[in-house]
What we know:
The complex is a heterodimer of chains A (288) and B (425). With 288 residues, chain A is mostly helical. Chain A has one domain. Chain A has eleven helices and two strands. In chain A, helix 3 packs across helix 6. The longest helix of chain A has 32 residues, at 256-287. Chain A starts with a strand and ends with a helix. The relative contact order of chain B is 0.11. Chain B has two domains: 63-263, P-loop containing nucleotide triphosphate hydrolases (Rossmann fold), CATH 3.40.50.300; 272-393, abc- transporter (atp binding component) like domain (Coagulation Factor XIII, Chain A, domain 1, Distorted Sandwich), CATH 2.70.50. Chain B is 25% helix and 33% strand. By secondary structure, chain B is an alpha/beta fold. Chains A and B meet through strand 2, helix 2, helix 5 and helix 11 of A and helix 1, helix 2, strand 4 and helix 3 of B. Strand 2 (13-17) of chain A pairs antiparallel with strand 4 (103-109) of chain B, so a sheet runs across the interface.
Amino acid sequence: xxxxxxxxxxxxxxxxxxxxxxxxxxxxxxxxxxxxxxxxxxxxxxxxxxxxxxxxxxxxxxxxxxxxxxxxxxxxxxxxxxxxxxxxxxxxxxxxxxxxxxxxxxxxxxxxxxxxxxxxxxxxxxxxxxxxxxxxxxxxxxxxxxxxxxxxxxxxxxxxxxxxxxxxxxxxxxxxxxxxxxxxxxxxxxxxxxxxxxxxxxxxxxxxxxxxxxxxxxxxxxxxxxxxxxxxxxxxxxxxxxxxxxxxxxxxxxxxxxxxxxxxxxxxxxxxxxxxxxxxxxxxxxxx
Amino acid sequence: xxxxxxxxxxxxxxxxxxxxxxxxxxxxxxxxxxxxxxxxxxxxxxxxxxxxxxxxxxxxxxxxxxxxxxxxxxxxxxxxxxxxxxxxxxxxxxxxxxxxxxxxxxxxxxxxxxxxxxxxxxxxxxxxxxxxxxxxxxxxxxxxxxxxxxxxxxxxxxxxxxxxxxxxxxxxxxxxxxxxxxxxxxxxxxxxxxxxxxxxxxxxxxxxxxxxxxxxxxxxxxxxxxxxxxxxxxxxxxxxxxxxxxxxxxxxxxxxxxxxxxxxxxxxxxxxxxxxxxxxxxxxxxxxxxxxxxxxxxxxxxxxxxxxxxxxxxxxxxxxxxxxxxxxxxxxxxxxxxxxxxxxxxxxxxxxxxxxxxxxxxxxxxxxxxxxxxxxxxxxxxxxxxxxxxxxxxxxxxxxxxxxxxxxxxxxxxxxxxxxxxxxx
Lengths: 288, 425
C-alpha cells in the first residue's frame, strides 16, 4: 500500500493510493510501531508455555533430548567424528543455534496465517508479525544456553576470546530464520501448501547442516572434488553452527570463509524475503 | 449541528475496489493448482482457439466499491448505511489502510484509529490488565499512552476486580466491555467504527453511544457503519447511503434515511429474503405472508400477517428462541415479538421453519423494517438486521369503516370508550 506521509501542510497527513511496482521497506513505519512489536514478542513469550505441565522447561528439554538421542546413535553407535570434543557437547553446541533457527522458521511461516483476525481487522506493518515470532525464540535460546554453560563447566571447557563473536552469530541465525520466514509466511497466505513444506524443509536442512557431523567431513570431500570448502557455507546455517563451535568451544581455527559465504547468502535471503513480503503485503487482508 | 466550515480531514476521490471473482470464495488456492494452471494454460488456449472462442476471456470482476467520492470535515460524525454487501465495510477497510483500493485516492489528515471488531487480538490466556496493553498496542496506541489512560479504561469497563484474571474466565459481557473500553480511549483525530455498538447489554450500549457523542464533541471525526438506524440518526451529522458500491446520497441524516427506507421498500416487494447463513446454527430465509392480501407485497392495517423464519441448526433438539423486531423506516423500534414471551422454546430440527402470526396488524400506513434473530439460551446465534421490509396500507383496523392514516401515531391500540357513572341524562 502506498502511503506517503506528506512533508508540507499538516504534519500528519497521509495519502492512500493503489501501489504498483517496487515498494520500499519503510523502516520508519516499523519504528513507529515498536511498542506493538514489543507487546507481540511479550505475548508470544508469555503464552508459549501456558497450560503446559512442564512450562518453560520445554525450551531446555527439546534440545537436550535431541542431544541425548544423537549422542547414543551418532556418537555412540555410528561413531561420527566430533573433532576431539566430547560428542554430547559437540552436538549440543550445534543444536543450540539450530533449534533456535528451526523453531523461528517454522513459527514465522505460520505466523501470518495464525494472525488472520488481526490482519483483516487492523492496520500495522505486517512485517512485525514474523519479526516478533522469531524474536520471541531468543528467550528459549537463552534458557537452553544455560545448559550449555553447565555442560562446558562439567567438561572443563573454557571459551576463548572468540566468544565476543557469539551475538553476531546469533544475529546471523536470526536473520536467516527471518529471511526464509518472510518468504514462507507470505507464500503461506496464498498457498497453504507451505504448512506441509516447512517441516520437511527443516528436516532436510538439518541433514545438510553440520550439527550431527563436523563441517570438515564435507569440506574435505568438496576439496577432493576440486571445489573450495566455503561452498558448504552457502547453507547459511553451516556458518552459524561452525561459528558457534569455534566461538564457544575453541575449535582451533576460525571458519572465516564459511561464515562469509553464509553471511552473503543470508543477506540475499533477507533482502529478497523483505521485497517479496512487501509486494504481497497489500493483498494479505484480501486473501488470508 | 457541528461546525460545517471545518477543514476536510477525509477526502476520497474516485475510490474503487475490485475483486476478481472466485477470489473471495476460494480465497487461497494450492500451489498445485497454480502450477497445474500454468502447465495447462497453453493446452486450454489451443482448445479454446479450436472452438473459435476468443483467446482472452474477460475475467469476471466484482466491484465492491466504485467511484466513491467523500468529504468529511473535522468534528463531523458520518454514518454509513446500506444493505449487506453494499460496500460499507470495504470502504472502512480502505480508510483504515487494511486493504488497498484498486482505483482512486484518499487523503487523511490526522491520526486514524479503527475499530472494526471489538477485542481484536485479545488473547484468552492473558489477564485483563495484559490484554489492555496488548489490544491498545494493536489499535496503534503507544505504551505511554496506555499507561496514562489505564485507570480510565478500567473504570469505563467496570472490571477492576478481575484485572488479574485471564479473560477466558470473563463473562461475554465483561469481555465486550473491556474490549470496547480500550478502543473508546483511542486518542486519534479520526475514528472509524464498524457495527460494534450492537454488542453488550442496553446500559452499556447507552454508555458507548454517550462516549461516541463525546468523541465528536471533542472535535474529532468519526465514521460509523451501522444497521442500527436509530443510533445513526441520534449520533450522525451526515449520512452516506451506499448502494452496490456507490454513494447514492451523502447528506443530512433525515434525507438519507428516508431514501434508504424507500429503496428498501421498493426492493422489498418480493416478500421473501434468503438470509446469509454461516456454518453455525443460523436463519436461512424469512418471508412475510399476507394471510388475506389485497395487493401483492402490501398489507393493510388490521389485516393478519405472518412471518415465516427458516433456520438450520447443528443438531436436533437444540433449545432455540426467535425474535422479530419491527422498526419504523427511520429506525425506531416499534414492536418486539419473541417466542420467549410465550414461554415457547422450540426443540430444533436440523432445519425447519417457525411461524409468527399477528392477527390484526397494529401499524398505521407506512414503511417498516424487520430484524430477526435466533437465540439459544442467552446466546445469540444469528441476527439479521433489515432482513425484510414491507409497506402497510391504510385499512380498517378499528372495524368502524374509517381507514387508518399516517397521523394515527406509531402503533394502533385496540381500546374502548364509555361513560363513567350516570351522567347528566
